[in-house]
Known about the structure:
Number of strands: 11
CATH class of the largest domain: Alpha Beta
CATH architecture of the largest domain: Alpha-Beta Complex
Distance between the termini: 42 Å
Radius of gyration: 20 Å
Oligomer: single chain
Shape: globular
Strand order of the largest sheet: 1-2-3-5-4
Amino acid sequence: xxxxxxxxxxxxxxxxxxxxxxxxxxxxxxxxxxxxxxxxxxxxxxxxxxxxxxxxxxxxxxxxxxxxxxxxxxxxxxxxxxxxxxxxxxxxxxxxxxxxxxxxxxxxxxxxxxxxxxxxxxxxxxxxxxxxxxxxxxxxxxxxxxxxxxxxxxxxxxxxxxxxxxxxxxxxxxxxxxxxxxxxxxxxxxxxxxxxxxxxxxxxxxxxxxxxxxxxxxxxxxxxxxxxxxxxxxxxxxxxxxxxxxxxxxxxxxxxxxxxxxxxxxxxxxxxxxxxxxxxxxxxxxxxxxxxxxxxxxxxxxxx
Length: 304
């Protein structure tokens, strides 16, 4: 538990700092100094935002400070004091994507994806490698005794079959080797902010990794079909016009994103009704997009 008053009294964070979010992580804000910060205790058990996550995102954002594409921290190192890790950034406005040109967002994502060479050699060795096939398999193995899968054999077989099909037909590591890039991994409207000139910037680099260049756009397009307000269709058109488009890879990456989301729902979603509805939604999206593979699933458990 973070003792905010103690941090303020020690002068580590501004005196007007207040917690604005504790949903997946602890976020503080200082209106007076126009700062926003991420906090975690050194012994945090919150796997959604550990000290390691904060330090990793901080280091990457600092390395990319000259690229004019991410919001960079105010200092090279995060603060580690009184058992707390604190990463402070200048506060920009949350974006209303309806007020920003798709070309502006697309340009930022493209710059981000091609920034790997701008990161120092030591940090490059520290960057994660994105491999959905590996962690999707690990998720399924860890929930092999889950009651949803035990009670719904069809869902269990379907998920295993679709994962096996993509692993054999569209190996994720091969998609990455064919078009290697720096991938944000978690793009959605909440991770885009803007300055006073309405210029967009990317935040929250926890999931940044080396992977297939088109994965960010493919992943965000799936999110948009689930309700995220984003001009992904226009960005897809811009990407096609860039001359670096590969429709087969893009479709496969959307399939991998849905597999990632499916296994995430199965492992982490505790509300059975929400989980079943979300799984049904994901399968419906795969069908609407005519993605590779057999996405048919019929059952008596609200999944279709």
